[in-house]
Amino acid sequence: MYSPIAGYHKDEENDWVAELTCGHFQHVRHNPPWISRPWVTTADGRQSMLGHKLVCKKCDLGAPVDII
What we know:
By secondary structure, the protein is α+β, with helices and mostly antiparallel strands. 16% of the residues lie in helices and 29% in strands. It has two helices and four strands; from the N terminus they run βββαβα. The mean pLDDT is 96.
């Protein structure tokens, strides 16, 4: 299932986490060469991705919503 990005927060390790409209959270790391998400490194980049849909495996599994 796809869910749009509604916002962001940082986790306890200072990594960015996308807050999805479905109520689930998903890490959005830029960790080349395995994961290339340079947009996550700047405020403008993160802002530009609000509304972008990510695959939410937690929805597919019927997981409860995440809590900060």
